[in-house]
Amino acid sequence: MFRKSFGILAVSLFLIVFSQLSTLGCPTPKLQAISPAKGFPNQTLKVSITGSGFHRSSSVKLTMQGQPDILATEVTVAKTKDQISCSFDLRNKAVGKWDLVVSNKSIFANSNNTNNRKTATLVAGFTIAHPAPSLTSVTPVHGLNNAKIAITISGVNFQDAAVIKLDRTGQNDIPALNVTLSASEIICDFDLTGVSPGKYNLTVTNPDGQSGSLPDAFLVEGKPDFSRLKPILFDYDKYTLRVDQLAVLNGDIADINRTPNEYIVLGGHSAEQGTKEYNLILSSKRAETVKEYLVKAGINPEKIIVFAYGSLYPSGQSDANRRVDITLWQRKPTKEEAL
Predict the structure, then answer these.
(1) What CATH number did the domain enclosing 164 receive?
(2) Does one domain contain both 97 and 177?
(3) Which of 156, 173, 267, 270 could form a disulfide with 279 if both were Cys (CB 3.0 to 4.6 A apart)?
């Protein structure tokens, strides 16, 4: 009987000591913060967890109801027991708020016995968010401010109900219309009627508030004033400047110098007499003659664009066909646009 009682007492003492050792070897952790507190489902993220009571046995995981746990790897506990460094593989994981769980396990505990674990939870402490939209290109990159224009935006991470706009400091935003989109492409319209000319940022904002932008991606142009500058007329089959046209050309130069950042487009024309090939060469020489005069007057040659149209676009009278039209543009136009 004595032996039996002694045995029970010994077992009880052993359990008490074991429990105390387990408690001493397994403090209860406390969590303060995780940094960064947000990641994306296309990355492996290294994080830092601050708190107290961390232990060399600490394990870390992210949990969300209905989702498999995300177990941390490369877990390192600071000697001060107040910081944990670890990594989470977030690839293909569910978007939303996850609980951060840190558990300490006694060195004496059975690995399958959760009763010997001390656990702390930071509820909704970590967020897996949709990646922010990223824009790579827009087509076309310019449009006149007298009509609607359809554009295509390429990129990644676009979401349904994303808000698209053109924006510029000091101007009202221009919202996109008739939007259709996929994760990598947006097709929409912008009504540019009456919009102030200039370069605008293109911005896409997803429903979760994340946005991406292409700075100065789109140029809103004022319609060129083709009546502002006077054409330079030439004699029949000639490409030298007429004396009576010098005053006209000098007046055009004065207007050009008022807007030195614009492109000067010279469109050479000829009368219909002669072959198509000859007239094309003649119209080009006329435009080059005007360009040479402009450059000598101090106009930047890199801002001058020459197009030769030959006799393809008569204006009525033969005298008026032997001319060089001068127009100003905010960008380099195509040959067809410059007509």
Answers:
(1) 2.60.40.10
(2) no
(3) 270
**How far are the Cα atoms of 89, 104, 201, 339 from residue 223, in angstroms, in the given order?**
54, 71, 20, 13
Where residue 264 sits, what CATH number does that domain have?
Answer: 3.30.1330.60
Domain boundaries, position 276: 232-329
Can you give the chain as a three-state secondary structure string? CHHHHHHHHHHHHHHHHHHHHHHHHCCCCEEEEEECCEECCCCEEEEEEEEECCCCCCEEEEEECCEEEEECEEEEECCCCCEEEEEEECCCCCCEEEEEEEEEECCCCCCCCHHHEEEEEEEEEEEECCCCCEEEEEECCEEECCCEEEEEEEEECCCCCCEEEEECCCCCCEECEEEEECCCEEEEEEECCCCCCEEEEEEEECCCCCEEEEEEEEEEECCCCCCCCCCEECCCCCCCCCHHHHHHHHHHHHHHHHCCCCEEEEEECCCCCCCHHHHHHHHHHHHHHHHHHHHHCCCCHHHEEEEECCCCCCCCCHHHHCEEEEEEECCCCCCCCCC
36 φ, ψ (degrees, to nearest 5)? -70, 160
Number of domain units in the chain: 3
Which residue among 172, 191, 221 closes a domain? 221
Q: Which percentage of the chain shows pLDDT scores above 90?
A: 76
289 lies in a domain? yes
| 154 and 173 co-located in one domain | yes
User: pLDDT tens across 80-124, in order?
Assistant: 999 999 999 999 999 999 999 999 986 555 555 555 689 999 999
Domain boundary among 128, 148, 163: 128
Asked if residue 25 has pLDDT above 60, the reply is no
